[in-house]
User: Which sequence fits this backbone?
């Protein structure tokens, strides 16, 4: 026969989960949105500077989540220039221009900051 005994309650777990739930409410996402725009603008390959200067962000709050979306409004002939700089593109003459991964390295420190601040918030004592 196997038996289990449980002593105590779940008050610490409940407190922890409440803190996690409130992190979304207490964290200022505008500063991360602006920091992301600055990082992306600085990292964007520059020819005319139009793509680098076309970054923006929006914050979307849903039921239990918050999204930061970074956008680039430089679109030429229906083609988002930031995307083809990132992934590459074909040329009219049949050649290929290799993309350059500039978005991920630029934005990763922002993600790290968000995670660090959220972790500090939920582990407060």
Assistant:
């Amino acid at each position: 026969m196997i038996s289990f005994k449980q002593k105590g309650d779940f008050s610490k777990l409940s407190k922890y989960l409440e803190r996690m739930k409130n992190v979304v409410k207490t964290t200022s996402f505008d500063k991360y949105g602006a920091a992301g725009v600055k990082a992306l603008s600085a990292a964007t390959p520059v020819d005319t500077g139009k793509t680098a200067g076309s970054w923006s962000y929006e914050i979307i709050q849903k039921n239990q989540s918050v999204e930061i979306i970074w956008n680039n409004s430089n679109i030429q002939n229906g083609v988002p220039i930031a995307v083809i700089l990132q992934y590459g593109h074909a040329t009219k003459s049949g050649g290929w221009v290799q993309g350059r991964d500039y978005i991920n390295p630029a934005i990763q420190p922002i993600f790290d900051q968000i995670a660090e601040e959220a972790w500090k918030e939920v582990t407060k004592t």
Notes: The longest strand covers residues 55-61. Residues 15-120 form one domain.
